[in-house]
Amino acid sequence: MQPALAIFARTPQRSAAKTRLAEQTCRTDAERLYELSLRCLAETGRALLAEGWQVTWAVAESGGEQDEYWQQTGIAAFSSGAGALGSRLAHTYARLLGDTAVAVMIGSDSPQLSVPRLQQAAQAAERSSLAAGPAADGGFYVFAGSRPIDAGVWEAVSYSQSDTLEQLCRAIGSEVAMLAPEPDFDDLDSLAEVVLQMPKPASATQQQFCQLAKRLLAKD
């Protein structure tokens, strides 16, 4: 069975996106950059669909999965569930593993992520049962697994902290294979790192993302 990927996302125009970046720039530019990031990841998702993966958006807002925006991406969408992030991660991870042997979860703020990197995450999870990719802020940009994790483990972690991934690994209580670090963007500093890690050659959408990002960085 091919892996299943869920991309955690917020629906454009339904929820505020990238609020820290918006404070440094403006809401319009931050939301436009986020939408471009979604488009970049949709390209990656469709490429994985072509490889036989199951790919879905895990949408934050109640009812947001029915929004026309997701239908236009060519990728199915479902609700990531109610409650805090830990509960939504638990719900989504269990749902993915119910359909396939390897679950892969990513956020929507690493538009540089490539098909090979996500394939690498899935392969690591097949070998080691669990794998994660550290993000510079202490969290993780990808988590992949081939065995169940109790919901209480996900819910025991404090997210958006400098030691979030460390907390998760301790809560799991067994070895988690580590992938190479990748940035995700929340502010101008992390945005600069994402631009540096963009693939070469970049897709047309990735180029659009970088053009807007560089314009915002030049204003700083």
Task: Write up this protein.
The chain has 220 residues and is α/β, with parallel strands linked by helices. It has nine helices and seven strands. Strand 5 and strand 6 form a beta hairpin.
Beta-strand residue fraction: 15-25%
What is the overall number of helices?
9
Task: Count all strands and give the number.
Answer: 7
The coarse overall form would be globular
Cα-to-Cα separation, first versus last residue: 47 Å
Task: List unreliable stretches of 5+ residues.
Answer: none
Features:
220 residues, alpha/beta, 9 helices
Brief overview:
45% of the residues lie in helices and 15% in strands.
Per-chain topology:
Layout: E1 4-9, H1 19-24, H2 27-50, E2 54-59, H3 68-71, E3 76-79, H4 85-97, E4 103-106, H5 115-128, E5 130-134, E6 140-145, H6 151-155, H7 164-172, E7 177-178, H8 188-196, H9 204-219
Parallel strand pairs: 1-2, 1-4, 2-3, 5-7
Antiparallel strand pairs: 4-6, 5-6
Helix pairs in contact: 2-9, 8-9
